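Onboarding guide, step 5: your first structure request.
Type a short instruction followed by the sequence, for example:

Predict the 3D structure of this protein.
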Amino acid sequence: MEFARLIENEAPAFQLSLSSSVIASCESYYALLQRWNTAVNLMADLDPLEVARFHFLESMYAVHFISPSTRNHIDLGSGAGFPAIPLKLLLPTLRNFLYESRSRRCAFLKELIRELKLSNVSIIPINISSVSIRKLHMPFDIITFRAIQFDSKLLNALVSVMPVEGRLLVWHGQASPHRDYLLHDPRLVEIEKRRIPTSRARFISIFERDAIAKK
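The system replies with structure tokens like these:
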């Protein structure tokens, strides 16, 4: 129950009001992380407060920038499930596609989805590439990532599956090559850069597909 209390106590700083069922799911999620971490090396640090703030609540903070009408979500380099799964707990109607190429982490994600009884979550167990993104053949209202490397081909593929006003959310530090790269793409507009609560140097940037620059 210690982790559940941490989530509940820290959530208001992130402007979040969490239901008892979401808090219970966070507790179950953290317990699964503890059981799997030695074998799979999901995280370097499982300190409860660090995990509550930096992983769970930082992920959930993005809900403030996602429209309730959002339907399709793609998360790149999902790892231990952040930010995709915490967002799923708050937005259960999302259809989620999680890219994760490492087999043991995919196994963890499958077990997590089963444990939390989540629906409409697909794990894509391959490397992120422009070809694999385009093969999904659907528009994505929201794209998220925290730590991936990308080039012009991948960015072109991501933009191609974003509808006008679709959003790309990036978590980053004070200096961010990812954000700088996106800032120079004329098809995207940074509509907000917000410092993440409880952090001095962690930010979330929200980019939107420009209605004028359609190509």
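Each response can be followed by summary notes, for example: The chain has eight helices and seven strands.
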